[in-house]
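Escalated from tier 1: iron/sulfur cluster holo job.
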Amino acid sequence: MVARVAQEWFAICGGCEVTILDIGEPLIELLEKINIVHMPVLMDHKLYGQTGEGTAMEIPEAEVGIITGGVRNEEHRHLAKEMRKKCKVLIAMGTCACSGGIPALGNLSLKDEILKKVYEESVTTDKGVAPSVDIPPLTDRVYAISEVVPVDVSLPGCPSTPEMVTEALTALLTGTAFALPTKSVCDDCPTIREKKAVSGLKRNLQAPEFTVGRPLKEMRCLMEQGILCLGPATRTGCGGSEGTPRCIRAYQPCEGCFGPISEKANPMVDMMGALSTVGLDPKNVADRAATFNRFSGAGRLRPLPKR
Ligand code: SF4
Ligand code: SF4
Ligand code: SF4
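Tier 2 regenerated the structure:
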């Protein structure tokens, strides 16, 4: 059977769609088993019927639905419900869809504060008024898809890996099991750990010490070098077939894009514990709530109390 696939994008950057293209050769094999019936990035975006005859936004029926991006306006909310209604299995793809992603950092401010800042107070913009005609109203905050409708499969990552997307789609098409890893990025990190930091926390973006060309297993753990790394509080899986986490491969710290290790985990608590374990003071991390929940603010970040 050829499965129909419908995909919609909400509050996104487009990187998750690039991941679908990045699947590469296995995509050719997948395309023989699927029929893409709706995908705005690929085809003309018809939501009111093929000739505009519809009176409400509709998604065609499909076996598999994929949503990228979180819910940031009322149109997204409507389409999330429509996708749920029309698709037998619903996938939330990418950290924006799974837990709000970077757009959910906006949950630290009230909706009206954001509009005021952007349209009236930004130093690079002539003072204007927030648009209100012919555009969908913003929701009060950014929501993960699972906060609006039930989701069957979540594929975290900013973006998810092509391998993970292929594995999930293949599992759905063949009726086999698919599960996310339950370990942390540290568990797949080959760096040397001695359970103590050599210095205090360094400034953001300070380069780690390593010898160019030498294997990663000879590099000291970045956190123990005083570089904030969210590996201890982040779900692994970004390494794909290579195993070693993506950022670590580039000698960069993990920023947490795969989100918390489990739904119940609290990255703030996990990171405070991890920092203390190597003798670093969590109080020296600026903007802690946003830093530790950078990719998972949908249900976790709220406007800060006014000083
Ligand atoms: S998860 Fe990352 S790559 Fe995907 S849409 Fe969001 S910001 Fe873009
Ligand atoms: S803290 Fe970062 S560098 Fe250290 S082991 Fe974990 S992922 Fe690797
Ligand atoms: S190392 Fe961390 S931030 Fe980098 S891709 Fe993996 S989960 Fe995302």
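The longest helix spans residues 74-86.
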